[in-house]
Amino acid sequence: MATSLQFLFSAINQAQDEQDLRSQVVPKIGEYFVVKRWGVFFFDQLPFADNNIKKALQIGLSIEYNPVVRYVVERHAPIHEALVVSPKIWTMICPRPDHRHVMAGPIVSHGQLVGAVGCTREQSMLAFDSQNLADLSAICLHLSTWAATMRSHTVFPLAKPTQKLLKSDRLTSRELEIAELVALGRTNAEIGKELWIAENSVKQALKRMFRKLEVSSRAEMVAQLYGEMLS
């Protein structure tokens, strides 16, 4: 019996943690869309320990390099490659034969893009169509609800375990995330990639943060925020 959308909705809702989601639900998503490869990715859980994997992911998932990723990041909506580039251009961007057709959708939690669903097909397989996008959109809605619930219970903490959360009533939660990355020595470009926003958005956010905190440098900002946290 083929997997149905209702089955997937129920399975997502019943998943107890990320491991349960990956073992019980993700394979069924691949089965439903009849794809070659598939996966659910949470950006703060990506395997960055291996430098080769890290480099490949940073290039392949870059909003500057990959128009499918850029679409998902900017619009929080599902997309397949044929809607943003021609087949010829796509083979230049992604030459892998098992990624000839690609579809991706967003996982959103608390207004932020925290992950994505990805499916790929080979050239000999049918391309993704509008019905596939509609079905992926429904699946992403349930995954986003699940992720928001899990994160609210600290199953997937937004901060790294070794990272101390800065606090300030004058900054938004997104601005505090940027401040924490600044404190870790990240550049604007690195912050943009880690938070999946444009580098210019980071620059503009820092300008607003400087005005709010009445500081003129990154170091002064971090020192003030740490001072508020400890006071």
Automatic annotation (TrEMBL):
An example molecular function term from Gene Ontology annotations: DNA binding
Domain HTH luxR-type: residue ranges: 164-231
InterPro entries attached to this UniProt entry: GAF-like_dom_sf, Sig_transdc_resp-reg_C-effctor, Tscrpt_reg_LuxR_C, WH-like_DNA-bd_sf
PROSITE patterns in the record: HTH_LUXR_1 (PS00622), HTH_LUXR_2 (PS50043)
Entry keyword Transcription regulation: yes
GO biological process: regulation of DNA-templated transcription
Pfam families tied to this protein: GerE (PF00196)
Alphabetic keyword roster: DNA-binding, Transcription, Transcription regulation
Identification of the protein by name: LuxR family transcriptional regulator
Organism expressing this protein natively: Cyanomargarita calcarea GSE-NOS-MK-12-04C
Upper classification of the organism: Bacteria, Bacillati, Cyanobacteriota, Cyanophyceae, Nostocales
